[in-house]
Amino acid sequence: MIEVQGLEKTYSTGSVTTPVLKDINFRINDGEYVAIMGTSGTGKSTLMNILGCLDKPTGGSYRLDDTDVGSLDDDTLSHLRNRKVGFVFQQFHLLERATATRNVMLPLIYVEDYPEDAKKMAEKSLSSVGLADRMEYKPNELSGGQQQRVAIARALITEPEIILADEPTGNLDHKSGLEVMAIFKRLHQKGRTIILVTHEQAVADHAQRIIVLKDGKIAEDRRVEKQRDPDVELSTLAGGEDEQ
Ligand SMILES: Nc1ncnc2c1ncn2[C@@H]1O[C@H](COP(=O)(O)OP(=O)(O)OP(=O)(O)O)[C@@H](O)[C@H]1O
Ligand SMILES: [Mg+2]
């Protein structure tokens, strides 16, 4: 479970201080599917970095399960991150010279005991996102949607309980975006906690709950009444193609 109380983040560069997150309060239960929205510069990525243990708050508290994240030293923080969290970014952040399989194996370097069957694990993870036939391709030999799926496979290889995705469909066409949302839907059904940042209402409506940030605070926190179903929309698209 994720719980933030009075969370603050102020960046300081030289004499300039920028308060970004001012008083953020929410609780996200295990297995929830949440979208975070808000205009550019409101602190969505800043919040994601904190939730993902990449960065620490400058005020308030963040509890992840029974741990007060703010009190951890950097080593313990990165340990917690590697164990619990998988990240997916808008820019896929893949190594250009490595194959899909190699890219997906990367996070395993940071786990305590490098698994003997790392390659098999990567192949399994790639298969789970529909890329069984692209394992030896390099990023520049893959489409944008396929690259994002490699990035998702990479996030999944450590079997994290929490998936954090920052604009995962921002660089994708409509259909590839829906395919990514279909993967998130399956992960949610398997009980993973999913937190997704997006500018687009249509993307946010795939989640169960939407939190809107404004001026460093929460402006809205509501349930989605009618969750969109990516599988239905994909089959509608496929139907449309058949008719042509
Ligand atoms: N390392 C940093 N040092 C100083 N200021 C920063 C730093 N990182 C982010 N900021 C500032 O914090 C604010 C929020 O940035 P953030 O990246 O969290 O916004 P965002 O909501 O993700 O925006 P976008 O939708 O454009 O991605 C911005 O005004 C930005 O300039
Ligand atoms: Mg951002």
Structure, explained:
This protein is α/β, with parallel strands linked by helices and 244 residues long. The protein has a single domain, classed as Rossmann fold (3-Layer(aba) Sandwich). Helix content is 34%, strand content 27%. It has 8 helices and 10 strands. The protein has helices at residues 44-51, 74-84, 100-105, 118-128, 144-156, 174-189, 201-204, 230-243; strands at residues 2-13, 16-28, 33-37, 59-64, 67-68, 85-88, 162-166, 193-197, 209-214, 217-223. It has a 6-stranded mixed β-sheet with strand order 6-7-8-3-9-10, sandwiched between helices. A hairpin with a 2-residue loop joins strand 9 and strand 10. The longest helix is centred in the last third of the chain and has 16 residues, at 174-189. The mean pLDDT is 94. It binds adenosine-5'-triphosphate and magnesium ion (MG). Magnesium ion (MG) binds at residues 44-45, 166.
Write the layout of secondary structure elements.
Elements (H helix, E strand, L loop, with lengths): L1 E12 L2 E13 L4 E5 L6 H8 L7 E6 L2 E2 L5 H11 E4 L11 H6 L12 H11 L15 H13 L5 E5 L7 H16 L3 E5 L3 H4 L4 E6 L2 E7 L6 H14 L1
Parallel strand pairs: 3-8, 3-9, 6-7, 7-8
Antiparallel strand pairs: 1-2, 1-4, 4-5, 9-10
Helix pairs in contact: 4-5, 5-6, 6-8
Bound molecules: adenosine-5'-triphosphate and magnesium ion (MG).
The site of magnesium ion has 3 residues, from helix 1.
